[in-house]
Amino acid sequence: MGEHDGHRQRLMNKLGVKQLCDHEYLEILLYTALPRRNTNDLAHRLMANFGGLMGVLSASKEKLEQIEGIGKNAAAHIFCVGEVVRACVNNEVAVLPKRFENERFLSYVKQEYVDVSSELLDIYFIDAEGNIYKRKTLAEGSAFTVSLGGAEFAQTCINEHTSGIVLVHTHPSGNAAPSVTDDETTGKCQQLCALNGVLLCDHVIYGKNGIYSYYLSGRLATITGRNKKEMHE
User: Fold this and answer.
1) pLDDT per residue as tens digits for the range 144-164
2) Which residues contact residue 165 at a Cβ distance below 8 angstroms, ignoring those fewer than 6 apart?
3) Cβ-proximal residues to 151 (8 Å cutoff; 6+ apart), any chain
4) Fold classified for 102-232
């Protein structure tokens, strides 16, 4: 093992264990494109030329190729990573509302699910400040086949370290009125949330002919009260 190999291994051992400097992240990023090179000096040179890590990831392939020691392959690799970062950021901005507010969230649901034709059960994760930070599909299928798995749901909440959630459920029939199964799903979800220290903020049902909010209708409070009563009996 050469001197550079030893440095690479030490840096890789730090990854995920402690916070790295921006140039160290860039060093590791270059390992794939330049497996036989010392990327430390190159990372510093890139940072100096483009004013920091974001400047490097925002640079065009042509400008990256002008840096001595980069070459076309490494330039394409860095540019591709930058494109992935931009795609993720743009997707989050376009898809998720920043904060959860019941009535505004309903407006978002009307626009977001207008083209959904299958039955879908999505979960939105909310942090302690009320910000929506992630969306995940829990189940998808043909009409009236969506189910909520207790173990999967609980593990999802634990993994996300979420403070609150919102469920969004689509009805392909077009009728947004809650069914008996929807009530059972909401009740089960509320119980699982309570057991895991998570707040169920709402369960929204979307149909082509309307939209229904368990919270705004008062139905969520009724189900929560019933669950609490059953737990104490």
Assistant:
1) 445 556 667 777 777 888 999
2) 123, 124, 125, 126, 157, 193, 198, 199, 200, 201
3) none
4) Cytidine Deaminase; domain 2 (3.40.140)
